């Protein structure tokens, strides 16, 4: 249960050492410390993580899905950024 | 589960003044048709949004109210092991409520509104939680039957078209299979126990069977929203399909326990390869949904009391956070 003045936090969890933090959900808390403790109770009851980040949702800027086509368009025609673009004879090894 | 906080940059796309509704609807329908997920900031039909808010919040309320019938037995669990398991299960349900409220909030409603609707008695929750837990065997029956039915309902929602709801459901289903197994284990222990324990298990099955069968909701003929929900891929199977599946998998489990399903008309139909059950008493279902079940008033009173008695904790946390912020500002200014 929350009060109206409790901001929303997004929760990111590193599931194992060596892996990146991944967004898992959100929760309300009065401050970052409470958000971390609640995130532990809500999102890691079964040892799902070794590290938690929380960030205020209002501090996250997100790209607009309606503009997604135009926004990501510049990468669309640059297939030469992928290794499979280049034809190399089979007898050449280690490339 | 992205949240409404992230919508701040995209508020305009909720109204979408620049594109006409027909084009947006066509784009939305095509996306659903391709089995792509709809995410919070995207345009969606108002009716889709309303349907989801209603369904997800009812689901969240059910998890929260669902803590009450089982919480009733935590202090009286027969062994320390059973007690630890029951605490873990009830805590999971609280967590599931939190995942679901977060998912509902991504659609533009606030947590306070949703909680206020529950406490005011204007929101629905699963009618099953308005039945009392009279004996320890009821804890077994709830895990086995009620969680069994809930899982059957929830697994298809993992593929729901709305991303945050589908992701919440994946987590919930992963955590819930232990709920059902621990319930069956309790029933198994009682069914193999003394004659009095067997009788207790049978009595619990007698009382929980029909309410569990009714958990899937009204029959398809009486469920006018099913077709639209299926077109939107919020729902993947009809109420009657899920109910039939539940009966088909649960009856053999009751047979294994050597307990009798309280339905004299229940029989195996060789031709269709399904169990056929007797008529469901829908008048009972509607009575309980409308607020006249054995525990409706008690459940709401317990939620209201918890909310009121917890007010000082919320106030203290807010006051503490405000003090910490003031302190941080003061130390910055003096530096």
Description:
The complex is a heterodimer of chains A (95) and B (335). By secondary structure, chain A is α+β, with helices and mostly antiparallel strands. Chain A has a domain at 3-62: Ubiquitin-like (UB roll). Helix content of chain A is 18%, strand content 22%. Chain A has two helices and three strands, in the order E-E-H-E-H. The radius of gyration of chain A is 21 Å and the shape is elongated. Chain B has 335 residues and is mainly alpha-helical. Chain B contains 14 helices and two strands; from the N terminus they run H-H-H-H-H-H-H-H-H-H-H-E-E-H-H-H. In chain B, a hairpin with a 4-residue loop joins strand 1 and strand 2 (274-276). Residues 1-14 of chain B have low confidence and may be disordered. Chain B starts with 10 loop residues before the first helix and ends with a helix. In chain B, helix 3 runs antiparallel to helix 5. Chain B has a two-stranded antiparallel sheet. In chain B, 66% of the residues lie in helices and 2% in strands. The chains are: A alpha+beta (95), B mainly alpha (335). Chains A and B meet through strand 2 and helix 1 of A and helix 5, helix 6, helix 8 and helix 14 of B.
User: If helices are DSSP runs of H or I spanning 4 or more residues, what is the number of helices of chain A?
Assistant: 2
Please give the order of strands in the largest beta sheet of chain A.
Answer: 2-1-3
Q: Quick one: CATH class of one domain in chain A?
A: Alpha Beta
The helix/strand class of chain B is mainly alpha
Sheet with the most strands, sense and barrel status of chain A: 3 strands, antiparallel
Tell me the overall shape of chain B.
Answer: globular
Strand count of chain A: 3
Number of helices of chain B: 14
> Terminal Cα separation of chain A, in Å?
58 Å
Kindly report the average pLDDT value of chain A: 92
Q: Determine Rg of chain A (CA atoms, Å).
A: 21 Å
Low-confidence stretches of chain B: 1-14
Outline of chain A: elongated
Strand order of the largest sheet of chain B: 1-2
CATH architecture of one domain in chain A: Roll
What class would the helix/strand composition of chain A place it in? alpha+beta
- Head-to-tail CA distance between termini of chain B: 40 Å
> Could you report the average pLDDT of chain B, rounded to the nearest whole number?
93
Give the CATH H-level superfamily of one domain in chain A.
Phenylacetic acid degradation B
């Amino acid at each position: 249960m929350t009060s109206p003045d409790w901001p929303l936090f997004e929760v990111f969890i590193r599931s194992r050492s060596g892996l990146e933090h991944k967004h898992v959900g959100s929760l309300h808390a009065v401050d970052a410390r409470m958000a971390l403790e609640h995130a532990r109770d809500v999102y890691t009851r079964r040892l799902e993580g070794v590290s938690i980040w929380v960030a205020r949702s209002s501090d996250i800027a997100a790209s607009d899905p309606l503009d997604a086509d135009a926004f990501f368009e510049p990468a669309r025609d640059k297939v030469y950024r992928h290794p499979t673009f280049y034809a190399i004879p089979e007898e050449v090894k280690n490339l | 589960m992205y949240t409404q906080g992230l919508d701040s940059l995209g508020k305009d796309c909720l109204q979408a003044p620049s594109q006409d509704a027909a084009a947006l609807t066509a784009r939305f329908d095509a996306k659903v048709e391709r089995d792509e997920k709809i995410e919070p900031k995207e345009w969606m039909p108002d009716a889709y949004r309303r349907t989801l808010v209603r369904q997800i919040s009812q689901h969240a309320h059910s998890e929260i109210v669902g803590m009450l019938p089982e919480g009733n037995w935590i202090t009286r669990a027969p062994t320390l092991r059973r007690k630890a398991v029951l605490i873990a299960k009830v805590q999971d349900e609280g967590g599931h409520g939190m995942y679901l409220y977060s998912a509902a909030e991504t659609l533009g409603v606030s947590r306070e509104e949703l909680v206020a609707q529950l406490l005011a008695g204007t929101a629905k929750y699963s009618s099953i939680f308005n039945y009392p837990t009279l004996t320890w065997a009821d804890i077994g029956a709830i895990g086995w039957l009620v969680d069994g039915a809930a899982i059957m309902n929830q697994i298809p929602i993992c593929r729901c078209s709305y991303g945050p709801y589908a992701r919440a459901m994946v987590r919930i289903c992963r955590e819930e299979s232990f709920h059902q197994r621990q319930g069956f284990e309790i029933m198994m222990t009682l069914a193999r126990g003394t004659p009095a324990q067997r009788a207790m298990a049978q009595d619990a099955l007698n009382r929980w069977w029909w309410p569990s069968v009714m958990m899937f909701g009204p029959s398809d003929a009486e469920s006018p929203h099913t077709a639209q929900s299926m077109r939107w891929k919020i729902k993947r199977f009809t109420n009657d399909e899920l109910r039939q599946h539940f009966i088909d998998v649960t009856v053999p489990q009751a047979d294994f326990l050597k307990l009798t399903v309280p339905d004299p008309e229940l029989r195996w139909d060789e031709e269709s390869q399904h169990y056929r059950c007797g008529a469901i008493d829908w008048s009972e279902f509607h009575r309980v949904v409308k607020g006249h079940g054995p525990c409706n008033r008690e459940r709401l009173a317990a939620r209201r009391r918890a909310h009121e008695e917890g007010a000082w904790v919320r106030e203290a946390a807010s006051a503490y956070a405000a003090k910490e912020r003031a302190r941080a500002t003061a130390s910055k200014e003096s530096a």
